[in-house]
Design goal:
Number of strands: 3
Helix content: over 70%
Order of helices and strands: EHHEHHHEHHHHH
Largest sheet: 3 strands, mixed
Number of helices: 10
Shape: globular
Strand order of the largest sheet: 2-1-3
Oligomer: single chain
Distance between the termini: 70 Å
Radius of gyration: 22 Å
């Protein structure tokens, strides 16, 4: 009878970023700038790789996938955050909250797996250069890319399904700037042991496995680079891995802090989370462009083609 008298939650209230009262305008401008730069940068990388046949190689095929992930990942929470800062409206529908939970874990897991696949690609390129095109043929690349998307969709479906099969009958205030499994599940009026156990296992096991696979790949890569006789050859081999290592560090660093340091203050957790959700997707295309002559050349060709077309 007590449960029947409670109102089923149809929307949630996001409290947003703490201690930001009075700074909404500058935060709105900052996040909008980050968001537009992320969209522009990743769309340019994606378009340049598609337009330049010289970049139709496994390495850039996976980079295209990463650009698509970043386009989606930054759009999960940033638009709603911008609306909240501009209009002061903090409500999000149950469907919107479900979408945020699903796509956050879907695209987050996809990027994690893509980083691992890209590490394997660099391992084959440096440690087995003569067999690179045989091992990393298009069939293998397609299977690896499809595997990351499909397995991540299963991962996200399990977590979001377990989260929203729980009953929510109030309160409905989420002490965060977007919907995530833990922030939502703690509002459920039922036992959350299963969802908490599955989430801790999945969000811990997948990244840790990926991290150790990447680490193992780079141990072997470093060993192979040190065996190269010429300094020029060592520099060239190392430079092909520098961009990927930077992206891996930016991806795993913030989430390691958030999930492995539960004693971090709320303000610190939000700052670190925002770094991973808003800033990192903007930096990825910059990282791959600044040190990559081929991508810069493709972007120049793309700009030249657009100018000619006019």
């Amino acid at each position: 009878m007590e449960m029947e008298n409670r109102t089923v939650v149809s929307e949630f209230i996001l409290l947003g970023i703490p201690n930001t009262k009075g700074h909404e305008t500058i935060l709105f401008i900052s996040f909008l700038t980050f968001y537009l730069c992320t969209l522009l940068g990743n769309l340019l990388i994606f378009s340049a790789i598609l337009a330049d046949s010289h970049l139709h190689t496994p390495m850039y095929f996976f980079l295209c996938n990463l650009s698509v992930v970043d386009l989606g990942f930054t759009s999960i929470s940033t638009p709603k955050l911008l609306v909240s800062l501009w209009t002061k409206s903090r409500t999000i529908s149950l469907g919107g909250c479900m979408s945020q939970v699903f796509f956050y874990h879907f695209l987050g897991s996809t990027e994690c797996l893509l980083c691992t696949v890209m590490a394997f690609d660099r391992y084959v390129a440096i440690c087995h250069p003569l067999r690179y095109l045989i091992i990393m043929n298009w069939r293998v690349c397609t299977i690896l890319a499809a595997g990351t998307w499909i397995s991540s969709s299963f991962h996200a479906t399990i977590l979001s399904s377990l989260t929203f099969t729980l009953p929510y009958c109030g309160p409905n205030v989420i002490d965060y700037y977007f919907c995530d499994v833990f922030s939502v599940a703690k509002l459920a009026c039922a036992d959350t042991y299963v969802i908490e156990t599955v989430t801790f296992t999945n969000t811990g096991l997948v990244p840790m496995t990926c991290f150790f696979l990447i680490l193992a790949s780079y141990v072997r890569i470093v060993y192979s680079i040190l065996k190269i006789n010429s300094a020029k050859g060592r520099h060239k081999a190392a430079s092909t891995c520098a961009s990927h290592l930077t992206v891996v560090t930016l991806f795993f660093g913030p989430y390691a802090l958030v999930y492995m340091q539960p004693l971090l203050s709320k303000v610190m957790v939000n700052a670190v989370q925002l770094l991973g959700d808003v800033v990192t997707p903007m930096l990825n295309p910059v990282i791959y462009t600044l040190r990559n002559k081929e991508v810069k050349g493709a972007l120049r060709k793309l700009r030249g083609g657009q100018t000619t077309a006019r």
